[in-house]
Amino acid sequence: MAYFEWADDMAIDEGPIDDDHMKLVNLVNELHTATSEGRGQEVVEKLMNELITYTKEHLQREEQIMEALRFPNLERHKVGHAKFADQLRVLREKYESGSITVASQLSAVLRDWLSLHIRRSDKEIKVFLQKKTKRSGVMPP
């Protein structure tokens, strides 16, 4: 069983947002597997960089999609995204200062944040898309 499993209730748009979320879930699982096998230190820097870079790209992409859709809660989402990016920055600083527990902290923080953020905040996007589709009969881009 994977450390963090994708679940149907995490689906948002069956498109780019879900694709990003699934990739992040896979990266979290890769990091967790490495740390549980004692390989955390040898792979943590590469995976941390990949996770942080991809997370930032995802957050920007998600915000662009929300803006294009005229999503009404974009600013609140941006605040949540900024707080999360700050958590990642703090973990990177801990790693750079020699902390040996960053790999496990990073996988836990990402797992918890992704799970809660997708199921709560991003679910608003799904509801918004469904309402918009119901009104127009066409799924927005």
Automatic annotation (TrEMBL):
Domain of life: Bacteria
Keyword Metal-binding attached: yes
SUPFAM superfamilies noted in UniProt: Hemerythrin-like
Residue ranges occupied by any Hemerythrin-like domain in the UniProt entry: 17-126
Family annotation (Gene3D superfamilies): Hemerythrin-like
Record key words, sorted: Iron, Metal-binding
Name of one Pfam family that matches: Hemerythrin
Stated family: Belongs to the hemerythrin family.
The name this protein goes by in its record: Bacteriohemerythrin
Natural source organism: Roseateles albus
Organism classification: Bacteria, Pseudomonadati, Pseudomonadota, Betaproteobacteria, Burkholderiales
